[in-house]
Design brief:
Shape: elongated
Largest sheet: 5 strands, antiparallel
Strand content: 5-15%
Number of strands: 8
Structural class: alpha+beta
Mean pLDDT: 79
Number of helices: 9
Helix content: 40-55%
Distance between the termini: 79 Å
CATH topology of the largest domain: Jelly Rolls
CATH architecture of the largest domain: Sandwich
Radius of gyration: 28 Å
């Protein structure tokens, strides 16, 4: 515990590989050389506040987002690559190997990937308190506070992780419900609001779920399902006018245009392939 660093660099200088101000831009930054792949004898908590960079370990490569909190265990290699010239700001705290802290940190960062935490509401108050205690207390007085604050930060990370997992699980469940509703009602659904109303969510949130998980809008997904069914009807010999009604189009003109846009062929041209 004696070597616990109160708080290491809060760095905001503009730096970046290929920076126009210097052929050796890392010399602009006292920690620049440490941005390359390296390791420490101590555990490290890295709080990323701003900039454009990515972190690489043996397990993953992650483009850091403001609010990302990273746990880099002692003697594990990692590197941070600067991607641009935006102001780079981070807080780094080194911690001596400590069984209790290690156990808690590994339980929170079980996959060693960054956890995103709200900067304004969570991280900045933590950083200010950490700096205040570190600058006003003696080292012996500060150390117990430091570990207590770090445990608090890990608890905050765990809560944020739980919230993120809950959001993902909720979105997955809603997507399954939406797909089930479409499968049961695709012939009669009038608009996307009908689907979102059935799930008691907003149309915009339904769009967000579809776009994130399926990379397609709900309206487009519904249209594709209708046209795929229409194709099966057409090649079975059912006339285009009948198919238009069977798959839920209000007018034959709307069906014709959708079929032409999706397949590049008019309905009658698909029918002729039988």
């Amino acid at each position: 515990m004696n070597n616990l660093i109160r708080y290491s660099h809060i760095h905001s200088e503009k730096i970046g590989f290929g920076h126009s101000l210097s052929p050796e831009p890392e010399k602009l930054d006292p920690i620049g050389m440490k941005l390359f792949r390296h390791t420490h004898d101590k555990h490290q908590i890295l709080i990323f506040l701003s900039g454009e960079c990515k972190m690489t370990t043996d397990e993953y490569t992650h483009v850091l987002q403001p609010g990302d909190v990273c746990f880099n265990p002692a003697k594990t290699y990692y590197g941070v690559s600067i991607l641009g010239n935006a102001p780079y700001e981070r807080v780094v705290i080194h911690i001596d190997p400590n069984e209790h802290f290690e156990s808690l940190a590994y339980s929170v960062f079980d996959d060693l990937k960054p956890i995103n935490v709200n900067v304004k509401e969570r991280l900045l108050p933590f950083i200010e308190r950490y700096k205040e205690y570190g600058s006003t207390l003696s080292f012996n007085q500060f150390s117990p506070f430091a570990y207590s604050l770090l445990e608090e930060l890990l608890c905050i990370c765990q809560m944020e992780k739980n919230n993120a997992d809950h959001t993902i699980n909720t979105a997955d469940n809603l997507l399954k419900q939406a797909l089930a509703y479409i499968d049961s009602n695709w012939k009669t659904i009038k608009n996307v609001s009908e689907i979102s109303n059935a799930l008691f969510i907003s149309p915009s949130y339904l769009y967000e779920i579809f776009n994130k998980h399926l990379n397609v809008a709900p309206k487009t997904y519904l249209m594709q399902k209708r046209l795929q069914s229409a194709h099966a009807y057409l090649i079975s010999g059912i006339t285009p006018n009948e198919v238009s009604q069977l798959v839920g189009f209000n007018t034959y003109t709307a069906f014709y245009r959708a079929c032409k846009a999706f397949y590049g062929k008019a309905p009658q041209d698909i029918l002729a392939k039988k």
